[in-house]
Amino acid sequence: MSSQNNASINITHFIIGGFDTLSRPTAVGVAILIMYLLAVLANMINIMFIISDKRLHKPMYLLICNLAVVDIMYTSSCNPTMIGVLLAGVNTVSYVECLIQMCVFALGTLMESFVLAFMALDRFIAIIYPFQYHSYLTNTRVLILTFIVWFIAWCFVFYMPATVVPLPHCSSRLRYTFCDFPAVLRTTCVDPEKYFNEAAIIMFFILFFTFVFICLSYCGILLYVKLLSNNEKKKMGSTLVSHLICVIVHYCPAFVRIIFTRFGVVLTLEERQGLVIGAVLGPCLVNPFVYCLRTKEIKQKLFKIFKKFNTSE
């Protein structure tokens, strides 16, 4: 341990080196910028629609609004940094900013899982128990449960700064494209495998149990749908498929990146970078269109706006 401390350095800034070998940084940067702006815009529109229309102040829309907030936070945790590196050449980040980015990114990953599970529960109760739905899930209960979910997620995230901050650092260069937990941990003077395994165990239980909960909820809905008429089956089937797309877009990259790499799946640096970028931008782009544009009230509101815009021309 003394040798590690002797070799350690005082870190005030980190250098982001994840894009050093990229052949076309400007093209990648522009693509990320466009997708990031689309994701933020789509989620902001959904939030504004729900907040401005009192008819949408219902449990399901509160959950959709919460998901939009999570998506904006999640995609904004890392994309501005990557865009800055690729398009402006700003490849340094302060130590404190790096820790904040690490925590916010991890919080976004956890909250995506928790919110998708919460929304699956909402749909399960709405479809299986339609008459009791509004007594089971009131606005107040949804807000309280949402607060609890955020608090639990923050408690899990606290593990990361509590692990990294006390460790001595031997490098200021980040191997990856922004400040996530593995990137920061690899700059320390210790063997990171122990900490990677601990984090993977925590994430495995969170991802596994939320994913199983979502699957069981949708299986229960599918069993119930069998009793409905053909028209209702088609409507429910279409809704379930679109929701499952959101689940797959979030969980598949997360399982590969966080869990499977602990069990022998080897990714090149470029594959990992691409997987992380897709894992962030994918859900944040898909969620607002699936959960909101497929919702009758929001679609009607959009059609009215477009109709008004066309008539004014």
Automatic annotation (TrEMBL):
GO MF term list: G protein-coupled receptor activity; odorant binding; olfactory receptor activity
Entry coiled-coil feature ranges: none
Protein location: Cell membrane; Membrane
Main location as per UniProt: membrane
Bilayer disposition of the protein: Multi-pass membrane protein
TM annotation in the entry: 27-49, 61-87, 99-121, 142-162, 200-225, 237-260, 272-293
Stored SMART domains: 7TM_GPCR_Srsx
Residues covered by the G-protein coupled receptors family 1 profile domain: 42-291
Record GO cellular component, one term: plasma membrane
Keywords assigned by UniProt, alphabetized: Cell membrane, G-protein coupled receptor, Membrane, Olfaction, Receptor, Sensory transduction, Transducer, Transmembrane, Transmembrane helix
Keyword Ubl conjugation: no
Family indicated by similarity: Belongs to the G-protein coupled receptor 1 family.
Protein's UniProt name: Olfactory receptor
Lineage of origin: Eukaryota, Metazoa, Chordata, Craniata, Vertebrata
